[in-house]
Amino acid sequence: MGALHAEAGRFESAEASFCKAALEDPTCSEAHFNLAVLFLENGKADRAIEKFIKVISLSPDISSVHKELGETIIAYEVPHFDSKTEFKDMSALNSAIASYRDAIDAIPILRECHRNIGEVLMKKGQYSEADTAFAKATKIPHDLQEVFHNVGATIHCPGNLNNAVSMHRTVMAHAPDYEGDEISEQSYLKTNLTFTDSEILLPDGFEVMMEWERPIMERSAEMITMNGGDVLNVGFGMAIIDTAIQAYDVSTHTIIEAHPQVVRKARAWARDKNGINIVAKRWQDAIGDIGPFDGIYFDTLMPPMIPFLRESYDLLKKGGVFTFFQMMVQFENIEAMANTELNFVLERMPFKAVEKNRYYRLLETDSSGHYSAPLLIYRKS
Ligand SMILES: C[S@@+](CC[C@H](N)C(=O)[O-])C[C@H]1O[C@@H](n2cnc3c(N)ncnc32)[C@H](O)[C@@H]1O
After folding, report:
1. Class of domain 213-379 (CATH, top level)
2. How far apart are the C-alpha atoms of 331 and 317, rounded to whole Å?
3. Which residue intervals of the chain bear CATH 3.40.50.150?
4. How far does the centroid of ligand 1 lie from the alpha carbon of residue 189, in Å?
5. pLDDT the model gives residue 203
6. Is the peptide bond prior to 350 cis by the omega test (within 30 degrees of 0)?
7. Which of 232, 264, 301 to mutate to test the pocket of ligand 1 (most atoms within 8 A of CB)?
8. What does the pLDDT look like over 295-306, one tens digit per residue?
9. Which fold has domain 2-59?
10. Does pTM surpass 0.85?
């Protein structure tokens, strides 16, 4: 009855029917699930989350529920971030993250389960059933962690294996030489870089920084200078964000840069500017002696990134804003940031199509095919 009402657009009656069903049989996952979907469609994200959590507690094996819950990040999206933007309570997102992590962690176990079932069935002589069980096991990709880590890790498809795998395949088809982000920081810092007008390149042509990222850098500079005061940028690169920061009224502007060639460029750039402090170290060796800041940007390209995200809370002053560069909303980053207790919103900055390059494929497109750069913005309350 509830489904019929919902299909006919009679949402209040649908809600009443599903509530009645849930009351009569509190273990009825379907009733709770349908209520959650109704709440979500009517913009009641908090109530939807409550219901999704209920369904997960009743039926933890329904992967689409983990997916729906993960998608609550949508509730954190703002059209355009500014100083008046209200940050949302993180507790719902934290539950979504924990649930998604459970779903990911459960997958290798699933594969084992199918395989074990197959073996049992084989021993019993039920060969065709065993075949089906083995087939199910092989459908679960072996390199799942990698898939999620490198390309499939958007929060938009948590728990959605098919989506993650197809995304991974598309990426591999476009860039068969892509080997993930495994560039060691140690070897990078000793590498001879080439600087052109529009790029910084490694000897093998790998791009460290590109001119086309300018709009993302300029928007990020606008965000982190919102409070004025003391601003930190980690990773000087092509001076794009630092030049943008200079256009705002800040008291001090600290730049951490570790590559000796880039440090020389940074010092030359800073010569005719005031209030700039260049810290020529790896951020790992620098952050103990600096801060706190009113605004922080982080973009080193090289891993490790997550340890910096974890430090961001201590590096910020009250009210301070932090954002960092990433091509797509990456689950691991959201997860790391959730533990910092900073408040969070997401802006998907519209982005003009750019020339083809190795990173471009990771930018998000909306339903009409327009590109956007996902900016996760954090503030210390
Ligand atoms: C992608 S570029 C930054 C681009 C910059 N946001 C801009 O607007 O031009 C990354 C920079 O981080 C620097 N870097 C890499 N690892 C670092 C580390 N551990 N500490 C400090 N800087 C680092 C690199 O040398 C490089 O200059």
Report:
1. alpha beta
2. 26
3. 213-379
4. 10
5. 87
6. no
7. 301
8. 999 999 877 888
9. 1.25.40
10. no
